[in-house]
Amino acid sequence: MQVAQHSMLKPSSWFRSLQPTTKLCTPSVSNLDRGSKRGGRGLVTLGRQPEVPAANHLSNLTLECPPSTLQQQQQQQQQQPTSAYLHLPFCKRKCFYCDFPVEAVGMKTEAQRVQQRMQDYVKLLCKEIKAMQPLNDAPLKTVYFGGGTPSLVPPDLMARILDTLHHHLRIEPQAEVTLEADPGTFDAPRLRAYMDLGINRISMGVQSFDEGLLKACGRPHDLREVYRAIEAVHASTIPSWSLDIISGLPRLSMDSWRHTLQEAIHAQPSHVSVYDLQVEEGTPFARWFSPGSAPLPDDDNTATMYAAASATLQDAGYEHYEVSNYARPGHRSQHNQVYWRCLPCYGFGLGAASYVEGRRFSRPASMPKYKQWVEDFASPDSKSRGVPGLSQPPDSQEERMLDAVMLRLRTADGLDMRSFASEYGADAARRALTALEPHFQDGLVLAVHEGRAPTGPTNLGSLHDQLVNARGVRLADPDGFLLSNHIISDVFAALSALE
Ligand code: SF4
């Protein structure tokens, strides 16, 4: 593999402008808050619709009256994005399980034709950024380069993107700026070149410490490159980095999984993401394998692997703060928490989704269509100038409510029931609690309190009784998280009966 050297690169202008106040080598110690790109609406299927009994026993639970729908819409519209996701779609080749919008460029990434493709794409991306008219002048607090394999894009092109972004939207000095990076695409000097541009976090897709499994997945790197990449990360002293692994791979044994977990911990990342393999339509894996059938692990094995990851990583000092994510103190992904908190986010690039003023908008996922879309959007005659998607209707109150349930229940912070009642009404909150009660009695749901540990079904009474003094609800780890789809489906069914 050839890795370009970029030690002569100059910091991008936005980073130079903030040098005096930024200490990129000092990890943040505060507890801070991408989809997950692998999370999302598609995870939940609606189950049976349970009876929602009249909630007389809830009369002692003071749930605030909701503001009017108009107020809600106004609040939603006032909440302006301070985050941006940028899609960089290039990969050496396409992994057998991947359904992301990706351009496979081959293993010779320094070839002129590949570099030219990247330059052309970055030009297009910058055109999109420049054509957007931001809604306000609030600077960006998080910037996330996802892909694809963004670490294939040379630092001089990354500098161009960051400069354009800073010029048009401004990036605040303490912003979290994340780059997804794969082993075999960078070394320590290249990583330092990215850091010189202001990138202060990387998310590295290792996926497995088993050479055979890396091959079976069609990963473009081998184990030797994984260990070299870990060395490069340590040599670079980047303040925060995440290591991604995947469970549920074909022929993954429990021994191999324990080995991967141990090696992940030995690498000492500040954050670990543990994704369970989803067999996506249209991928080679979908042609070769059926979910739940050999050689993929069955449900019991999948559950055992999930529980082993949760226990092993927590024993090693990682907080299990979202279904698939673990962090050392102060190293939660701020960008991903924007998604999980249903906060707005700009999107740029091939197939990128944005969520602005309550409206979701996905850009075309094929390169020719994206190119045409940017040309139309940036045209002086364009009727859709401003922010893409604003001409379409916002998500309904019901859609926002279901998103809130699904995304917030996937986090350790859980669902704040008083805010939920305030936003969506006391009746919705009571119905949600009624649907959660049997799972609380089974130990899958916990009451969340301010300043003390969550509580389960003790002599303190029902979930409703405990919530009188609690802040909200969360799913228990690991069993509640494991059954999150089932539990969330029950809440959805209860809420679907709302007038
Ligand atoms: S490296 Fe990541 S984005 Fe690229 S093909 Fe593999 S899984 Fe997909």
UniProtKB/TrEMBL annotation:
SUPFAM superfamilies: Radical SAM enzymes. Residues 379-398 are annotated as: Disordered. It comes from the Eukaryota. It holds the Pfam family Radical_SAM. Residues 76-319 form the Radical SAM core domain. Belongs to the anaerobic coproporphyrinogen-III oxidase family. HemW subfamily. May be a heme chaperone, appears to bind heme. Homologous bacterial proteins do not have oxygen-independent coproporphyrinogen-III oxidase activity. Binds 1 [4Fe-4S] cluster. The cluster is coordinated with 3 cysteines and an exchangeable S-adenosyl-L-methionine. This is Radical S-adenosyl methionine domain-containing protein 1, mitochondrial.
